[in-house]
Amino acid sequence: MNVLILRTKTIFSAGLTIGLYLLTFVGHAQALTISGEVSKPLTLQSADLKAMTHTDVTAKDRDGKDHTYSGVPLVDLLKQAGATLGSELRGENLTKYVVIKAIDGYEIVFALAEIDPEFATRTIILADTVDGGPLAQGVGPYRVVVPGEKKPARWIREVKSIDVRFAK
Fold this sequence. Notes:
This protein is of the alpha+beta class. It has 2 domains: 1-30; 32-166, Sulfite Oxidase, Chain A, domain 2, CATH 3.90.420. It has helices at 2-30, 46-51, 74-81, 112-115, and strands at residues 32-36, 42-44, 55-60, 66-73, 96-102, 107-111, 125-130, 133-134, 143-145, 159-166.
């Protein structure tokens, strides 16, 4: 009887530990942080991003087919965090860049001017849906989509953070 109770407690304890780990991991994957050279660092949850105005872009993915992605323009997220944009993006502020990190450690870089509509003609988005449905597991919950790039190497998957930095 004591052995059965001990085994049950061990199994329950292991299950609880795994459950808490998965809850922590999934919860962390849903949060997006924006930090660095911004006046209002942010931590946004999935509900925060879903409530923001979305933009649709159609672009070719690695499969060579056009897909329609929907998400928040990267510039809108940076504005909300208080990044230097628009008429303030001049002089030394033009040396600022954005590092976007994925859960697996993959990182990409954009010059801040590449994201600002006063400098660039394309809209880079943080997508949360593709072709009307959620992003696939291993791609979402968030993915950067960069229309017009010849290679989707900066279409980073499983985005977890955005960091604005000075090149100097």
